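User: I'm writing a tutorial on reading structure tokens. Could you give me a worked example: one chain, its sequence, then its tokens, then a sentence or two explaining what the tokens reveal?
Assistant: Sure. Here is the example chain.
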Amino acid sequence: MLSSLPILDLSRLDAGAGAADEFRSELRQVTHDVGFFYLVGHGVDQDMIDELLSVSRRFFDLPAEQKLAIENVHSPQFRGYTRVGGERTHGDVDWREQIDIGVDREAVVRAAGVPDYWRLEGPNLWPAALPELQDVATRWNDQLSAVALRLMRAWAVSLGAPENVFDDAFADRPFTLTKIVRYPGESDPEPKQGVGAHRDGGVLTLLLIEPGKAGLQVEHDGEWIDAPALPGAFVVNIGEMLELATDGYLKATLHRVISPRIGSDRISIPFFYNPALDTVMPRLSLDSGLAAEARGLSVDPTNSPILETYGDNALRYRLRAHPNVAEIHHPDLIGAQKVAP
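And here are its predicted structure tokens:
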């Protein structure tokens, strides 16, 4: 039985051809078998990590009225602050508060023929009392996007595809998202849900966990593996769109978060590396050996199929996770078969 997540060192890509080939092979095998790993050697400076954690703490320390001034009920794009209990995973309430930060763009005007998923593109909501958050979050997006692209290219080569096979999906209007999350203690001592079991619906996730904290659990062979913070490392996992691109050879894995014990809390910052909303991920042609090991697509816990266009998946998830925002800004989509909450 696997007792902890594997550790991969991204700097091996720069250590000569042999080391790079070994890294790609390990990357492919780990994400075929487990779908999760710790990433070290990623090049993101520790000062940058410390700065983001510090500003995140300062955000959650703001008075409630200042956080609620940018609550996501004010955003058709589901951006901004979500109060504790304001998000659901598969219908169950998640015990966390957070701020969702995407790429700042102009909102897309709704019109006949414009796909519904373009409603997700638009501006962020920023706390007036903490202007430094915007600068830190923007730099974080840029640095982690660069790390994620290196991983995508490594996967491509490891799977026998051209290194740049995924580049076009992220070249124009990538739909990246940073969630800054605080889990207040709720377990006493019986474990309570921080986030329910789910698979990520996008392409790739890089997760920063506050040092010394635990709570993330990853499913493997029917058992739950604890994935506590590892100094200097990101927890990395693939999402359903990369599973789709490889016909299930790479694995989008179920995971969940257990709430901390009462009297403590935990900061967690997942970065979701996702393509433009109108992207249909390229399907890779695997060689016969790899193709024989492809499992097909996972069965989602809600029995919802993976949709080929990324934006359709993203919109469906948002409508389900935040029914209050959907009711205010997207009542015409509630009950539609493809996005039913």
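What the tokens reveal: Residues 7-339 form a domain with the Jelly Rolls fold (CATH 2.60.120.330). The mean pLDDT is 92.
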